[in-house]
Structure formats: C-alpha cells, structure tokens
Amino acid sequence: MKDIHDNCGVFGIFSDAPCVLDIYQGIDFLQHRGQEYCGIAVFGDHIRQVTHHGKVSTSFTDKDIEYLTGSRGIGHVSLWERQPMTWQSKLGEISVAFSGNVMNAEKLINQMKRKGQAFYRSYNTELIAKIIMEAPDIVSGLTDLTRKIKGAYSLVALTADGIYAARDIYGFRPLILGRDENRFVVCSESRALQNMEMEVVRDVRPGEIVLINGKGFQTMKQVRSPRRAHCAFEWAYTASIDSVIDGLSVQGARNSLGQSLAQRDIDEGDTRIDVVAPVPMSGIGHALGYHQRSGLPYQEVFLYNRYADRSYTQSTQAAREKMAKRKLSVLRYAVEGKRILICDDSIVRGTQILNKVRDLKKAGAKEVHVRIACPPLMYPCDFGISTRSREELAARHFFKSGDIGSLKKQRELEVWIAKEIDADSVKYNSVESFVKALGIPKKDLCLKCFDGVCPFKEEKKSSLLDRKR
Ligand code: SF4
Q1: What is the rounded distance in angstroms from the CA atom of residue 248 to the CA atom of residue 251?
Q2: Ligand 1 center from residue 353 Cα (angstroms)
Q3: 425 part of a folded domain
Q4: What pLDDT does 277 receive?
Q5: For residue 383, how far is its CA from the centre of ligand 1 (angstroms)?
Q6: Distance between terminal CA atoms of the chain?
C-alpha cells in the first residue's frame, strides 16, 4: 500500500482587474493545506506560470508578481508536487491544479502510454489534464474524469473561456464559490473568501462542473452523484477553524466533538481533573467543547511557536520530529501539581503525543489524561490526506489483524495506548459518537481511515442490492 498522498489547496479567480495579488493572498490563506510547494498561473494574452518549492509568503518575488499579468488565474499550495501545470493543446492553453488523489493513476497512465501518450512525471495532475485534453471540449473532458478516475479531486482549470471548477462525484475534498462586486472566486476553503472580504455563495456540488467568467458562475453540467463521501477528517483536523465546509462550521464541529468526549467522562464519572487544555492548534476547538460541556477550567498549558510549521504536513519523519520539538513548549506555572486533561484531534504514530505527555510530567503535572476527538486511525487515507501507512498507525500495533469491532475492544486499545504514551488515561470518540457529534448522516461521510469502509465499495454493494430488490 502506498504511504503518503497529496494534501493540497486550490484557488481560482475571474476578476475585472489584475488578479495576481488576489491569488497570492488566496493561496496564503490556504497555506495550512500544504506547505512544501506553491504556484500561480494567470491568463493575460497567454498563460504565465510560476511555481516554487516553499511557502507562499517567502517564495514569490516582486519579479514574479510583475511577470504574472492577467485578470483571471489559479493558484495552488501542496505538500507533494508543483502545481499548476500548463499545456498547449487542441483545446487551447490550459493550466490545471487539483487537490485529492487518483487511486487508479498507474493503471490509467499505463493505458494512455500504450496509446502513445507521453508523461513528464506521471503526476496525478498530468493524468487529469491529459484526460481532459483528449476530449472534444473541456466540459466533456471534465465529465470523462468522473467515469475514469477512481479517487478524490477538487480541481480548477484555467482556459481562454474562464476558470472551470469541478468536484468529484463523492465530494471528498471541499470546494466553495464566493464573490464580490468585481471578483468571482472558487477555492478549497471559505476562510480565503471571508478574509478577502467576499461573500460566500455556495459549495460546489459533488459531480458539478462550473464555469467562472465575467457572467459569474454557470453550472455547465451536473454529473449524477451516487452518494456523498465528505472527508470527516476535514472537520476534525485538516480544515482551518474559521472555515465552513458543506454547511458545517469547522469550529462548531470541533466544539461538538469535544463535548462528546466530555459527556462520556461525565457518564463514566471520570471528572477528577484540575485543568482542560488543548494541544495547539488543532486541539483548541475540541478542548473548548470539552470545557463547555464539563464546566472544568480551561487553561493553556503549551506555548505555540507560531514560526514553526505544522509537523503533520512535513514530508519526512525526521523533519516532523524536529519540527514537533520546536512547535510547543510547556507553561510550567500552569501544570505544576495539577491533573491535566489534554485534547487533540487524532493519534497517528503516537510519538508526538508521547512527547507532550512526558513534557507535561517533566514540568510537574500530577496526572496527564488524553482525549482524542477522532476514533482510532486504523487505515491510511486513499483520497488525498497523508495519514501514513497502515504499519505506522499506533492503533494498528494493538489491532495487528482485525478491526476494533466493539466499544469493549476500543476500551482495551485505550488502556494499551495510555501505557504506550505514559498517560494516566486515553479516550477516543467512537465512530458512532464521532458521527453523532458532527451531525452529518453517516452515509454522507467518508470514514474509511477509521472503519475501513471504502465509499466506492459501499456504492457497489447498494447498487447490487437495489438491483436484487
Ligand atoms: S480516508 Fe479518512 S482522511 Fe481520507 S478522505 Fe476518508 S475520512 Fe478523510
């Protein structure tokens, strides 16, 4: 099984004025979705493109900004590859950027190679663009993607007609439209729109193909969506706390997940705690929710170094560990002699939470209890989030073969993992309590990294059942 996949953010704009600074600002607001590469393509008299290895704010130069002339364009931030990519084709110039992962990329690329297509680097983006460019027009090409690609994508394509935006038929990755008087925008998360003082219009629907030009947003085609499979991890971790995804506020979702953890402790009479604290930054919403439901005091116990990158999106283990150490320091005065309960979004390998528990105990904490908003991570993600290989996942070391299956088994895991990370207790939300807290029907969510159920296979199963009926 492959180890790591893309983790990206996309942005597209049609404006009545030069747009490069808007794109720069837009992708800067999406930087949390990937920090290794960034890129911008604009359409003036032709497409001009600049990509960098690095973050938006430290990579683009004055010369780049001067060079990127045009009033429509797209931008991208990524953990794994340089995008956008631009081609000359029978459909004219086209530049494509996407967020997601193509699971059957190797098979499709081999098929296309046998038909004489050449690939520069066999990137997912290249495959997507070539499928589009083989078609008689862009909308047919984007429609072909929905048939040919097994996986997840939210994409933007810059052409002479305007910007095309498309979301896969399951709606794994977010994509949202916004506008003001002079600008029409599509992007991965609503935070970019809010911070650019634009009005949020709506989410792009799963299977929808939208053209953005001077007339605004036009739905060019709506491909049938067999079911929704929005990535549940977006609300728990990936998305920014100030975003609203598919109608659900990220902050509200995290609060609710924290409240669910607190309710379990209340029900189990497990409330001998002095302080509730977040693991910054993604644990903040969860800890606030825990505090609200339990009424226990909320207190920061870690000082966040805002100049360090998020360790999750570093591309090597060594870089992640080094960054994790730089990221948080303990506020000794807040922890000495106290029973601390810390909230975080998930446990991946367990090394980071182990270090935090040890740091708190070294600073004098009497007890450290850990509460995790997501259910145990049991499977890697195939749809564009880097949740690591199966062997690297901490919960998999306990459940070497087989799944959690029951709450009793989850509790056995919690006892085991508490010992592994030196904590006095560990509790996760179960899949059921997690879904209930989000308030989105289970059938509309992807939960594959928790329960191993692939939305495609579920779809096949239900179609077969439908036919039998
Ligand atoms: S497998 Fe997990 S991380 Fe990947 S899309 Fe599904 S819920 Fe999100």
Answers
A1: 9
A2: 21
A3: yes
A4: 98
A5: 6
A6: 36
